[in-house]
């Protein structure tokens, strides 16, 4: 019986792996990822992804075998991994074989000769036998990974992941380091190739991280203990020191990195801004708002109308005056839209707000209101912020004139965004610790109980909604200034989904989580052109996986962490009641 | 219980605001309608045309709405990915129909040329929905409400961009069926054949679904599960299997709707599911979510409103190019219903029956 299960398990895992591998090929990842190397001249990203799939299948098959036999049986584990990898490879080979006989391209766009060429390593039709062999190798590696004692596995995983990240962003690091000239530039050329790591670089990164991670395993606890043994004063100053270092890096970043990266960082910062806003609504108060982009649009259009020197500008006040007004306008719209909707139950609220978001976008882009909002042409010629005379702080009479420092470039807008983000992070943090913050969380956990304890539902929810709207408005205002123009088509639902996704990934209700989420979901795809093609595919997968495996997010807030780790049993029963 | 003055004031403010909102909308519709009819820009032929288009459109919404309503009835969750199930049906039918068209099969057998793609789309949609249920929803069945909703949003994006990756971002033209070109004369009005066929096909599908739910054993089990999962399980019903069946049946309807939709609009692309999905959800809520006849009524009402709305009341209000705001009508209806009557048109009857 066990033997049958064992075989079937391994084959089943292999079948799953084969399906995933074919999916990766057909969606077009293999082809696009092949343009980038992980290790130059050794392995491309496309090959790497397939190899990782095979190894993962080997790992899963081996683990299932261990579950089946109630413990590790090295020979059986390795056999299971081998079979799973082999089946994955065979299916992929079969796919290539069929692909050469039948024209799959009539249906699947990516089932094209270049793909087959990649899969047969450029040798053509007959050369499908390496795939199963690689599968066997990959499966064995995966299975072997399971057999490594946990003490070594942790550092190894960290080293692998770190090296992989270095490889992904090697182009970026290379550019930044080469700009420094001298020794740094030389090091860059040694470590990073044109499209990926050099093999020397790979080894250096891998072993450095491996050793550090290994040492941390031994000594980490001691260091942590020593820090916690410090007097309170000392801990605080340590924290301030870390904060200052991060701040210094944040300030220096755009001057070192050049305009492209600065642009990416500004985008990330904008999303952090909005994420912090929605975090109040969704993370603290538990209201899922899918129409968040509406307030973003309102903020952007307010700034546009107030400062544009194009045909739709109503006034020519300066950026500094326009932004507070935009925030106020967004906030009052939050109140107007929030008042009616907040009585609506949780999941209905999501759909109702989604409706609002779409209404705002459609109205802004329609010909009906084109005489006010520019319709499809949008609003152009938005004034850049200017630091100069006192008069210029209030009103700009001559378009584009600035008698001081014009914050026109991406690098300078970056500082505006960073300052706003810091300000808002501070506000969000203080709000969470306040009485209002506790009321929000009470509502999130249980509305009825919260009401019974004297929390005014409408008022509290409305405040959450309005503050979220205000932050979104600020984001929109900065966005409008950064781009210099606004189009209704950029106010898509996708913006709202982006923000929701980054909060979910980072951890609902967690402020550092928002930052982590924004970097992971907005920053990484922006930096990797190859990946940005599949960005929303990854979003989808990420949302599902996070919900199933780690609903608390990558960087959960203290409260959620406590809840999930100390009251597991209670939690389950409480949730099933909902 | 005593409440403070400020709280009472806030409550008052809210209700004044809500009433103002209602009156505003009703007034806008009335004024616009009167102005439009006075202007007499459209002939009665054109009005009939709008209504028939509305009916065929609405019956498509109704078909999709069935899936939302059935899933909601059983799991109390909004299946956000349902619009993408609809899209996947349209895509699979497109590829089959194009192939059939190239072999000349559709010209020889227009009836089969219509039915085979529909059947294929139903099968494909059902299988994809079952897969989505298995991967993205089943592990989360006991989780708090927002969790499966977010997972469903994830599934929706995953499906959209999978299709984009597999078939490209372009817009495909669904092959035309020659037998469906032209008009039929009904009571002296010329009506497009496609629209009649679509409405009839949708009505037949809904009839089949309704009789499955009402008169078969599986249907009975579905109703039992939606009434009370635990009790149904005690009665020997395999709840898991019923949930999967519900997803599959709802998805099959959406798949068929995908084909009908592409017959009318002739466009198949990876984002096509979003707007009809939201509108179908509106239809489901409009009719009272969880209620099958409600979804049908809701779909028709929404379709007709959306089709005559721009010319009937928007144009009368002096709005230029009112058809651009067609979707605004649907979304406004959605928000209004959620605000003022979340139980929908036929919702009350259901709760009474349940009580």
Describe the model.
Chain A is mostly helical. Chain A has 27 helices and four strands. In chain A, the strands form two sheets. Chain A has a two-stranded antiparallel ribbon with strand order 1-2. Chain A has a two-stranded antiparallel sheet with strand order 3-4. The radius of gyration of chain A is 27 Å and the shape is globular. With 355 residues, chain B is mainly α. Chain B has a single domain (44-354), classed as ABC transporter involved in vitamin B12 uptake, BtuC (Orthogonal Bundle), CATH 1.10.3470. Chain B has 14 helices and four strands. Chain B is globular, with a radius of gyration of 22 Å. The two termini of chain B are 29 Å apart.
Name the features.
heterodimer; A: mainly alpha; two-stranded antiparallel ribbon; globular; disordered C terminus; B: 355 residues; mainly alpha; ABC transporter involved in vitamin B12 uptake, BtuC; two-stranded antiparallel sheet
Specify the CATH class of chain B: Mainly Alpha
Per the principal axes of the C-alpha atoms, what is the gross shape of chain A? globular
Kindly provide the radius of gyration of chain A, computed on alpha-carbon positions and rounded to a whole number of angstroms. 27 Å
Order of strands, main sheet of chain B, comes to: 1-4
The percentage helix of chain B is over 70%
Strand content of chain B: under 5%
Overall pLDDT score of chain A: 79
């Amino acid at each position: 019986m066990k033997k049958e299960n064992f075989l079937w398990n391994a084959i089943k895992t292999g079948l799953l792996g084969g399906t995933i591998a074919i999916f990766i090929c057909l969606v077009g990842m293999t082809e696009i990822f092949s343009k980038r190397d992980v290790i130059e001249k050794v392995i491309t990203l496309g090959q790497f992804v397939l190899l990782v799939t095979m190894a993962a299948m080997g790992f899963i098959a081996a683990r299932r075998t261990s579950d089946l036999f109630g413990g590790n049986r090295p020979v059986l584990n390795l056999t299971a991994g081998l079979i799973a990898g082999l089946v994955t490879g065979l299916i992929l080979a079969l796919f290539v074989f069929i692909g050469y006989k039948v024209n799959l391209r009539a249906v699947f766009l990516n089932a094209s000769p270049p793909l087959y060429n990649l899969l047969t390593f450029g040798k053509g039709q007959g050369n499908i036998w390496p795939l199963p062999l690689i599968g066997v190798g990959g499966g064995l590696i995966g299975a072997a990974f399971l057999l490594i004692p946990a003490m070594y596995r942790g550092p190894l995983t960290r080293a692998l992941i770190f090296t992989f990240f270095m490889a992904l962003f090697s182009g970026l690091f290379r550019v930044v380091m080469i700009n420094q000239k001298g020794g740094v530039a030389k090091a860059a050329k040694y470590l990073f190739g044109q499209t990926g790591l050099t093999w020397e670089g790979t080894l250096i990164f891998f072993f450095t991280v491996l050793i550090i991670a290994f040492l941390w395993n031994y000594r980490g606890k001691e260091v942590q203990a020593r820090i916690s043994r410090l007097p309170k004063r000392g801990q605080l100053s340590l924290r301030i020191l870390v904060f200052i270092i991060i701040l210094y890096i944040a300030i220096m970043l755009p001057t070192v990195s050049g305009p492209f990266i600065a642009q990416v960082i500004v985008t990330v910062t904008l999303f952090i801004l909005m994420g912090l806003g929605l975090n109040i609504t969704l993370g603290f108060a538990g209201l899922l708002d899918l129409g968040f982009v509406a307030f973003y649009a309102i903020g952007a259009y307010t700034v546009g109308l107030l400062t544009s020197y194009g045909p739709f500008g109503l006034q020519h006040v300066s950026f500094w005056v326009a932004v507070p007004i935009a925030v106020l306008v967004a906030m009052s719209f939050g109140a107007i839209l929030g008042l009616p909707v907040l009585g609506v139950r949780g999941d209905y609220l999501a759909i109702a707000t989604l409706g609002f978001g779409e209404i705002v976008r459609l109205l802004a882009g329609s010909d009906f209101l084109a005489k006010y909002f520019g319709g499809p042409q949008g609003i152009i010629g938005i004034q850049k912020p200017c630091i100069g005379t006192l008069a210029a702080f209030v009103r700009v009479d001559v378009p584009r004139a600035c008698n001081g420092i014009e914050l026109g470039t991406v690098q300078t807008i970056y500082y505006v965004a960073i300052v706003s983000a810091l300000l808002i992070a501070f506000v969000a943090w203080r709000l969470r610790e306040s009485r209002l913050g506790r009321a929000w969380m009470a509502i999130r956990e249980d509305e009825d109980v919260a009401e019974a304890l004297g929390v005014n539902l409408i008022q509290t929810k409305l405040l959450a909604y309005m503050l979220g709207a205000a932050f979104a408005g600020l984001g929109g205002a900065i966005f409008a200034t950064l781009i210099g123009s606004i189009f209704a088509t950029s106010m898509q639902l996708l913006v709202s989904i982006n923000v929701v996704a980054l909060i979910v990934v980072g951890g609902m209700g967690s402020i550092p989580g928002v930052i982590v989420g924004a970097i992971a979901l907005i920053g990484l795809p922006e930096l990797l052109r190859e990946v940005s093609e599949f960005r929303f595919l990854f979003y989808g997968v990420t949302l599902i996986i996070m919900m199933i495996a780690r609903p608390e997010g990558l960087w959960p807030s203290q409260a959620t962490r406590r809840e999930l780790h100390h009251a597991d049993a209670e939690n389950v029963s409480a949730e099933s009641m909902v | 219980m005593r409440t403070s003055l400020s709280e009472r004031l806030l409550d008052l403010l809210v209700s004044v605001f809500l009433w103002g909102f209602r009156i505003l909308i009703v007034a806008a519709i009335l004024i616009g309608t009167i102005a439009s009819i006075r202007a007499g820009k459209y002939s009665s032929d054109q009005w009939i045309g709008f209504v028939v288009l509305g009916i065929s459109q609405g019956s498509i919404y109704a078909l999709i709405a069935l899936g939302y309503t059935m899933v909601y009835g059983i799991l109390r969750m909004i299946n956000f990915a349902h619009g993408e199930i609809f899209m996947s049906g349209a895509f699979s039918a497109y590829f089959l129909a194009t192939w059939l068209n190239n072999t000349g099969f559709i010209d020889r057998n227009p009836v089969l040329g219509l039915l085979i793609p529909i059947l294929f789309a139903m099968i494909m949609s059902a299988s994809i929905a079952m897969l989505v249920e298995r991967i993205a929803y089943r592990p989360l069945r006991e989780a708090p409400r927002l969790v499966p909703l977010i997972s469903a949003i994830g599934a929706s994006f995953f499906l959209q961009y999978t299709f984009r990756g597999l078939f490209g971002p372009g817009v495909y033209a669904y092959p035309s069926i020659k037998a469906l070109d032209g008009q039929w004369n009904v009571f002296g009005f010329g009506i497009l054949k496609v629209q009649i066929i679509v409405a009839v096909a949708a009505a037949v599908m809904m009839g089949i679904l309704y009789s499955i739910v009402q008169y078969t054993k599986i249907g009975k089990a579905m109703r039992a599960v939606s009434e009370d999962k635990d009790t149904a399980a005690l009665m020997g019903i395999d709840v898991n299997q019923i949930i999967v069946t519900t997803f599959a049946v709802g998805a099959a309807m959406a798949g068929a709707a995908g084909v009908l939709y592409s017959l009318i609009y002739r466009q198949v692309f990876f984002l096509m599911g979003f707007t009809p999905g939201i509108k179908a959800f509106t239809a489901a809520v409009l009719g009272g979510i969880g209620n099958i006849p409600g979804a049908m009524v809701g779909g028709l009402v929404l379709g007709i409103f959306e089709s005559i709305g721009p010319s009937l009341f928007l144009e009368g209000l002096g709005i230029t190019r009112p058809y651009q705001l067609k979707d605004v009508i649907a979304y406004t209806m959605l928000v209004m219903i959620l605000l003022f009557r979340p139980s929908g048109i036929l919702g009350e009857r259901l709760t009474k029956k349940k009580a």
